[in-house]
Amino acid sequence: MFRVFGLGSVSVLDGGLKNWLAEGHPVTSDYRKPERRDFQASLNQSWVKSFEDVLENIQTKQVQVVDARSAGRFRGTEPEPREDIQSGHFPGAINMPYTSFLDSSGKHHNTEALTKLFKNAGVDLEKPIWASCGSGVTACHVALAADRLGLSDLCLYDGAWVEWFKRVPPELIISEGTGKKA
Known about the structure:
The chain is an alpha/beta fold and 182 residues long. It has helices at residues 16-22, 51-60, 71-75, 111-121, 139-148, 160-167, and strands spanning 48-49, 64-67, 94-95, 129-132, 154-157.
């Protein structure tokens, strides 16, 4: 998410603070005022895909869209967290729950395991990937995992499932549950 706004030097605390502490790394309660720096955000729009882009891709099948929601939400068998949205997915989407990129401690899998995860899900690592989820946030796990593998043809469908569900007719929603009413 930071890179899409032009911030190139970004790090992720693998496993979060919980693992940082468990591994004995130092922390302090001392306050240190950060040095003031100027940053001019600039959106790289080419990394963000729109509803229309996804709609077109359903026809062209040029890009793989990987959905980071849970398998139940993707299939339509578990509810979405928003009451006005039914679960399911759009045609051609591939499900890779964001939790699959993490081990039991919350750390990211190594690159060998990530490669296997993508391949087992049916993702061709030679083709472009657009990440999606419920609202555009957990999709960043897909992008981070792909970036760690050195892939550069990555984008985010920021409107995600919420926008898709609200805008499309029922026939463009795939669900094992109730789906969208006409």
